[in-house]
Amino acid sequence: MATANKNLSAYDKTTIPNAKDLRFGIVVSEWNEAITEGLYEGAMEALLDCGAKTENIIRWNVPGSFELPFGAKKLIETKPVDAVIAIGSVIQGETKHFDFVCSATAQGIMDLNVRTQVPVIFCVLTDNNMQQAIDRSGGKHGNKGAEAAIAAIKMASLG
Ligand code: INI
């Protein structure tokens, strides 16, 4: 069972469905690229560890987190995928921009989950500062990309 303070990279492979026949889309935001690349690597490592094949994984880039819902929607509409992972990193600045980007991105991704048949996983870090993002993209709290990959496998195998 998931707990609040678990390491984001921790999973018990014996409880995860095999991903060998599953197809994944990964949409990666270019904002805070060092962080989103870390998340992408964490996601890829966990997908492959659980049996996914590289030829069944499509990566698309988008400019920022705000563009993730459109990227995920277009990917679902044009490619045969069983789950999409939307990767982004939003870091608090001096203005309200952070709040608008975070809420629009989360809402846009939730809309897709309700409207389409393909699960879209929310792998967007929303941090107060760069250190918090580093800690969660392969640092001391693990990698949210790995957590998202496991969620994608579970959701693609649901039912
Ligand atoms: N996009 C992010 O993914 N992270 C951020 O921290 C960020 N900040 O700070 O502004 C950000 N802004 C860009 C936004 O996502 C859109 O790309 C832009 O507004 C164009 O639509």
Automatic annotation (TrEMBL):
Residue positions of the active site: H97 (proton donor)
Binding site for 5-amino-6-(D-ribitylamino)uracil: W31, S65, F66, E67, S89, V90, I91, F122
Keyword vocabulary terms for this entry: Riboflavin biosynthesis, Transferase
Chemical reaction(s) catalysed: (2S)-2-hydroxy-3-oxobutyl phosphate + 5-amino-6-(D-ribitylamino)uracil = 6,7-dimethyl-8-(1-D-ribityl)lumazine + phosphate + 2 H2O + H(+)
HAMAP family, sorted: Lumazine_synth
Entries under NCBIfam families matching the protein: lumazine-synth
Name of the protein in question: 6,7-dimethyl-8-ribityllumazine synthase
Organism: Arenibacter troitsensis
